[in-house]
Design a protein that fits this description.
- The protein is of the alpha/beta class and about 325 residues long.
- The strands form three sheets. It has a seven-stranded parallel sheet with strand order 3-2-1-4-5-6-10, with helices on both faces. It has a three-stranded mixed sheet with strand order 7-9-11.
- The longest helix is centred in the first third of the chain and has 20 residues.
- Helix content is about 45%, strand content about 15%.
- The chain has a domain of about 220 residues: 3-Layer(aba) Sandwich (Rossmann fold).
Length: about 325
């Protein structure tokens, strides 16, 4: 009989691609999804839906029951939140609930999806799983909450729970419905709402390669180990130039000084808190993060898991096509 795998957050960007990878492999898939959450990313897929919130221990235990593997992909991924408490509850307490329920159910393997944002970044080379880091280096509540959640997962592994941690970098591709902060950069670019860029860098990876990396971690990963699931290290300017070649939209030429970007973000957040109560065009957390180039090395995942990410241009092209057909991009863009 095919294995039964639970995917938390299977209706999200990375999660829905993990669901597809599992179905392609022939597994049965159960998805834990919040009541009332958007299910568009799961349209047409033969999955079992379990309704519940990560913070609800009973709901999590019901979702885990009978599963052979658990892929904990769900997270509150926002770079600006008016109140971080809910983010910590989802990302930290939710992780504890998933791991404890999995331990009780004697699940054979748990893959905890962390982020490269929880890793250290050396000043002169790409970061690895072993780069020294502390919570004091984490910028913003998202990174801090994911850093703590990763520690929860590692501590559980040391106590005998079969947990493997993956650290995706910056995934791009289709079905980024919200969109994610990186997807929003692409949407703003396509809508010609990006007159300037900041001098930063990031590691871009095809979201479907990240999904395959989750499955490889479950099959080949060592319990208690972390694996970076990355792709290509690019400056933001290089990313925008590639998007320009793909889309035909010209890339911005003006580099925005850090101080100007920081001032704009302060003003945007003030407007969001007082007037709109919606996420600002740019947040202070995003600008602070941009001071470091988020470059990472996936050599450990390549060597131990057989992880083989492809060039990211096809994923960028797929993202452009998705955003243009989803209604997020103006017809003329």
């Amino acid at each position: 009989m095919p294995r039964l795998a639970l995917v938390t957050g299977g209706n999200g960007f990375v999660g829905c691609h993990v669901v597809r990878a599992l179905l392609t492999r022939g597994d049965r898939v159960r998805v834990l999804i919040r009541p009332g959450a958007d299910r568009a990313a799961l349209a047409g897929l033969e999955v079992e839906l379990a309704s519940g919130d990560l913070r609800d221990r009973e709901a999590v235990e019901c979702a885990v029951a009978g599963c052979d593997q658990v892929y904990h992909v769900a997270a509150d991924y926002r770079l600006w939140v008016p109140d971080p408490a809910a983010m910590y509850a989802a990302n930290v307490d939710g992780t504890r609930n998933v791991i404890e329920a999995s331990r009780r159910a004697r699940v054979e393997r748990i893959v905890h999806c962390s982020t490269v944002g929880a890793l250290g970044i050396p000043p002169d080379r790409a970061g690895t799983e072993d780069t020294p880091v502390s919570i004091e280096k984490m910028v913003g509540p998202y990174k801090r909450s994911k850093f703590i959640a990763e520690r929860v997962a590692i501590e559980a592994a040391r106590a005998g729970v079969p947990v493997v941690v993956v650290n995706p970098s910056t995934p791009v591709g289709p079905l980024d419905l919200k969109p994610t902060p990186t997807g929003r950069i692409i949407v703003d670019f396509l809508n010609r709402r990006m007159p300037a860029y900041v001098d930063t860098g990031l590691n871009l990876v095809d979201v479907s390669d990240v999904a395959q990396g989750h499955l490889l971690a479950a099959e080949r990963g060592r319990i208690g180990e972390k694996y970076i699931l990355g792709g290509e290290n690019l400056t933001l300017r290089e990313m925008l130039e590639r998007l320009a070649r793909i889309s035909g939209v010209p890339a911005p030429r003006l580099r925005l000084p850090y101080a100007v970007a920081f001032g704009f973000a302060l003003g945007a957040e003030a407007v969001s808190r007082v007037l709109t109560h919606r996420a600002p065009r740019a947040s202070v957390t995003e600008v602070r993060m941009s001071r470091k180039r988020m470059f990472f090395d996936s050599a450990k995942a390549r060597g131990e898991l057989g992880y083989a990410p492809r060039p990211v241009d096809a994923a960028l092209a797929a993202a452009v096509e998705f955003f243009r057909t989803s209604g997020l991009v103006r017809a003329a863009a």
